[in-house]
Amino acid sequence: MTGHIVVGYTATKTGRDAVAFAARLAARTGAVLDVAVILPGEGRSVITPPDASYDRLLREQARQWIAAAIDRIPADVVAHAHVRSADSFAEGLIAVADELAADYIVVGAADGGSRGRHRLGTTTSELLHSSDVPVALVPRGARKIAAEAGISRLTVAVGTRPGADALISDAEALARSTGAPVRLLSLLTVDLPPTADTAAIRIAGSTQADEVLEAAQTQLPEGMAADVVVAEGESIEDAVSRLEWLPGEVLLAGSSRLAQPRRLFLGSTAAKMLHEVPVPVIVVPRTRQQEGGEA
Amino acid sequence: MTSEAPAIPGEAVDGGLSKKGLSAGTVGLIGAVVIGISCIAPAYTLTAALGPTVSEVGFQVPAIILIGFIPMLLVAFGYRELNNRMPDAGTSFTWAARAFGPWVGWMAGWGLVSATILVLSNLAGIAVEFLFLLIDQLAGSPGTIAELAFDPFINVAVCLLFMLGATFVSYRDMQTTQKLQYFLVTFQVLVLLVFAIAAFVHTGAGSAFDASAVDLSWFNPFAVSSTAALVAGLSLSIFIFWGWDVTLTMNEETKNPEKTPGRAATLTVITIVTLYLLLSIALLSFAGIGDGELGLGNEDIQTNVFFYLSGPVLGPLAFLVSLAVLTSSASSLQSTFVSPARTLLSMGHYGALPPSFAKVSPRFFTPGYATIVASIVASAFYAVMRFISEDVLWDTITALGMMICFYYGITAFACVWYFRKQWFDSVRNVFFTLLFPLVGGLILAALFVLTLVDSMNPDYGSGSNIAGVGLVFILGVVVILLGVGIMIWQAITRPAFFRGETLSLDAPESLRRRKEAAR
């Protein structure tokens, strides 16, 4: 892959987490890193008088921030800087990504999250609901992982319902370019009404999960070995928290079925998973062909 | 930054992509007028300045308003020239440093920052009084809740909360929607119009407090009793137009830099002057200048005349005035915060202050550190003043007028001196870079000196004094000496700026002479 990875950068720990992960991904895939700072658009200022010279000062500052961030990443990663004004962080990032035909947009957790955890802020939520490019969410503390860890494994959350073709093909492409092994994951939850016969659900659920995993496995090209794991728990959070993660691991999840074609939309399952997953999560749009089969 | 930068950031930054993100001007004519009016905040300004002005010049307030605009206009022309030639977030600080060197530049920056900090504390003080009045009016409990605003402890506590809120909003750069802001400004203007008309109706119907017939002499500045009164009145009227220059200096920010700023400034000033004249004439004819209960000469009501007059004039609709003053103070609080914060940031940037002042919040892109410092100083200042002076609002307004004269004056002279080699390049330059700013600067300098001398008198302004010396004088001198003190301290710890290493003296060459030389 010789594409582009766009990082939505802020000169905070969050931003450094995002850049650190994006650099690891770029180093493995050979992509160009595009570090972008999105400044507030001038048009939105209605109370404070706009001041073009202050805006110039901000852009200069943003360039320095980016230069300092680029200094921190390994020397073999090619990085470019982008400073632009937009009405919102998400809008600016998507515009940069579209212009570069980028493969991923990488952003950090919102401020206030604890170490190793994801936290969705308003800007990341907006991004997750409007991007047509896969979005990688980076948890707090990702910058502490050594650059040499690379991308150690791809875990693909295939869910329990069919219709994950696009996700599988994206996972396959990413596995190919990073050389990382794949782990297929299905979550089995027992979060149905307590009146239901849990044993029956478990059997039914587990059969279904196995089927889905099997289908997913057959989609992977031959020669690409994949581990299969079914995580069980009383809730999604519970199930996810029992999984083991490698340093440098990445989770791939599909966008919700509610999303418009080619747009992202974070589903409730994925949102719940985010609470517990300590590794970066890449949310990919469920693209074109799958619309018919699942409604 | 290490030397082994892996990429070529400089190149990419200047590449086509990032340039596209730079929007050209986005402000249209209406937008500029709205920003101008909300920066001046006429509802707040008039309620704070009308009383003190009446106490100085009596019925001649309209005359003072009209001639007070002249130095403001002249200086604003100089502002515009400087802003076009070297746009910089540090405005007066940077310009004065370029023209006169680091020491004068530092003091100009200090003047701007201290003037805005004075007005911030006054704004918050007015907002508190109107908040209590509004609650009082809505709850229908005549006077009991409004009285609470005058308990110094409650007053200071609520005022600090206001400042905290304003700091938070400024730090995070939260903006209302354009529609809401347009609505608020329209509302403010309409309420003031209604207020003025209602006062005239009362006067006509004979139900006014102290009906006084409008007289041509109200417009005659020579009818003012003494020169000292004229000076004091002018110094106050400088304050009521303060903020107007924003429309004139918006240049590359506008959609049409050739025409928008000039038109916006004209429209804004016509609106503002009309409003000021209408309201001051209306209230003068309604209440007179006697010292009776509602008379504008009554010292007890002078610091906040709308507070006392809105009820008698508008009856049940008086809460509209409270609402207009509150919203106008709130948005003015936010727009005012920007200016000291950006100047402090610029001073930090050029090494005139510790580098932490130059910090930009990486999340909100505001001068975070400078904003917080400005807020803490303004809050502390208000709290102390509230306990020292019986008439804190009055004294801060007067001291403010003086500080505005100080730094505007320096800025005007900076314009004259900076363009000294271009004065005679064209007829236009003779006026805009020499005559206008020079005359404006001289008027402001004279006002500054005369106010300073007069304010030594313990009876000056509100009559607050310490050991027989007028509080306004003490305020002005302390603020300036404090500035000198901090400047010397900075010169010792951070000499680079004061040696002119970060911001050098400059004077653009004459274009005409260069052309002649080329021939």
Which series of helices and strands of chain A comes N to C? EHEHEHEHEEHEHEHEHE
- N- and C-termini, Cα separation of chain B: 48 Å
Q: Spans of chain A of 5+ residues with little confidence (pLDDT < 50)?
A: 288-295
Mean pLDDT over the residues of chain A: 79
Oligomer: heterodimer
The unreliable regions of chain B are: 1-23
Question: Whole-Å distance between the termini of chain A?
Answer: 34 Å
List keywords for this structure.
heterodimer, A: 295 residues, alpha/beta, ten-stranded mixed sheet, 8 helices, B: 519 residues, mainly alpha, globular, disordered N terminus
Structure characterization notes:
The complex is a heterodimer of chains A (295) and B (519). Chain A is α/β, with parallel strands linked by helices. Chain A has eight helices and ten strands. In chain A, strands 3-2-1-4-5-10-9-6-7-8 form a ten-stranded mixed sheet, sandwiched between helices. With 519 residues, chain B is mainly α. A two-stranded antiparallel sheet of chain B has the order 1-2. The longest helix of chain B is centred in the first third of the chain and has 38 residues, at 102-139. The termini of chain B are far apart. Mean pLDDT of chain B is 86; it is low at 1-23. Chains A and B meet through strand 2, helix 2, strand 3 and helix 3 of A and helix 1, helix 2, helix 3 and helix 16 of B.
Describe, in short, the structure shown.
The complex is a heterodimer of chains A (295) and B (519). With 295 residues, chain A is of the alpha/beta class.
Describe the secondary structure blueprint for this structure.
The complex is a heterodimer of chains A (295) and B (519).
Chain A (H helix, E strand, L loop, with lengths): L3 E5 L4 H17 L2 E9 L11 H21 L6 E8 L2 H12 L3 E5 L13 H9 L4 E4 L14 E5 L7 H14 L3 E8 L8 H22 L6 E8 L2 H6 L7 E6 L13 H9 L4 E4 L11
Helix pairs in contact in A: 3-4
Chain B lengths: L8 H5 L2 H5 L8 H12 L1 H16 L3 H25 L6 H9 L1 H38 L4 H5 L3 H20 L6 H28 L21 H15 L3 H5 L10 H28 L11 H4 L2 H10 L3 H32 L18 H21 L3 H27 L8 H28 L10 E2 L2 E2 H23 L1 H4 L12 H8 L1
Antiparallel strand pairs in B: 1-2
Helix pairs in contact in B: 3-13, 4-11, 4-16, 5-11, 5-13, 5-18, 5-19, 6-7, 6-18, 7-9, 7-16, 7-17, 7-18, 7-20, 9-16, 9-17, 10-13, 10-16, 11-18, 11-19, 15-16, 16-17, 18-19, 18-20, 19-20
